[in-house]
Structures are given as C-alpha cells and as structure tokens.
Amino acid sequence: MASQPNLPKTHPALVLSSTSEPPKVQYVPTPQPTPGSAVVRIIVASVLSYSRDIYNGMRPYPFPTPLVIGTSAIGRIAAVGPDATSLTPGQLVHVDCLLRGRDDPAAVALSGIHEGYTSKSRKLMHGEWKDSTYAQYAKMPLENCTALDEKRLLSTVEEGGLGYMVEDLAYISTLLVPYGGLKDINVQAGETVIVTPASGAFGGAAVMVATAMGARVIAMARNTEALKRIAASLERVETAPITGDVQADAKALQSFGSIDAFFDISPPGGRHVISL
Hints:
The chain contains 7 helices and 14 strands. By secondary structure, the protein is an alpha+beta fold. A 5-stranded antiparallel β-sheet has the order 9-3-5-6-10, with no helix packed on it. Strands 13-12-11-14 form a 4-stranded parallel β-sheet, with helices on both faces. A hairpin with a 7-residue loop joins strand 1 and strand 2. The protein is globular and about 60 Å long. It starts with 9 loop residues before the first strand and ends in a 12-residue tail after the last strand.
C-alpha cells in the first residue's frame, strides 16, 4: 500500500441541507481513501451557469440531502486506496463528475448535481459517492481522476509548456461535454458540423472541440457579434445567424453544401428544426 499523507479530521465543505435555503460552509469529517477511490484536495471546481436553479429547486433535479454539492474539478491527489496502481499523492488531476456503476455502466449519476432516475444510479449518490467537490477534500472513484501533465500544461511557453494557469484547466470539464457527443458520432477530420447555438458556454466549447478534431464548423447563433468573435478566433469556422425564419435559416445552411453532423445544444424550451 502506498504511503499516505495525514489527512485532517475535518475540512470545510459547502453543504446543501434543503433547496429551501442556501448552501452553507460547514466543517465535516474528511473522507478517507477506500479500495477503488482517491481523496483529492480540490484546487478549483467548475460552476454551472444554472447552479442556482439546481440548488434552489427551480430545476427539480433529484439528489439526497444533506449534500456536499459540486461538479467536476481540478485538484491534487491527497491519498489513494490500497488498490491504486498509478495515481499517487501530489499528482495534479482532473476530477470528472460523471459517476458510473462499475458493474453496470448504464447506472449514471452526476456528482453533486443529479442522482439519476434508477435505483442503481441512486445507489451511487446515496452511498459511497454521496458528496462532491465544493469542499477542501473530495473522495472520488479512481477512474474519475485523470492525471494531468502538469509540466506541459503549466510551464511557460519559454520553458516548453503551454502557459496555462491551473484555474484555466477547469475548462476541460466544459470541453468534455461536447467532446462526448462528437466522439460518440465519430466526427472525422474534413467533415462539416453545424453547431447551434454556438454562443453559449457548451456551444462555444463544441465549436472549439469540433475544429480541434479537424472538422469544418458552421456556427449558428442569434448574437452576430459573438459569431464574428468565434470565426476570428478559430480556423475552419463559418457562421450563419439564427434569424427565427426557419425557411431562411434552412436556405442559408444549404448554401454550405453537404452537412455531416448537427450538434444542437439548445436550452430547455428552445425551438428545434426537425428537418431542412
């Protein structure tokens, strides 16, 4: 078993007791490593733009309470379970909030956000993985902690690195959302992908990911100034404003030729074009 640093008995965490009152910072027992887990000292955690609506009950997401809330994060391994073979204390890691049953990958929950709708998914958040990352320490499954190349990511350009700040790495979580969808449909270099709306957090990330995968992107949004900024900042991006006129928008898209994929990340209640 790897040598473990001493963990404090308690640590500060943001605890939600009820959706009828705001979460509060409380000192709670520090999680301890168990087989298949790692305890991560959190450096920075992502904040969803709609977090307020989740935790005040406006979005009726199911989750147990009291709950240490949170989502994906960046941190350092503080301790690992006895079966860890790669992760070691001190490593910089990305912590993924997507929980899956090890013996049933269809059982899915989002740490600190949503327990899912099946008895299997609920078991993940009502048991071993109940608490999330808005805390000094979080216990997560080993497979949810991905080691990052700290030297490459955080060293200056002059030192051969990419020059990121550690806080910048939290954006990995946003990029992973569209990456999962684009990878699932096997987007290939040279293909053309429509992304709409492209001006939001996840839509903008989808444009970045699709171009990084080698695709040509047609970015759509109502905000024409945002479209100009997107096109100016990335290669292989063309734009088409959303006018609200379905026929006009369809005609504009047809002018781009053959389309291989359509990435729609419209907010709840948004209007959708079923076919062109």
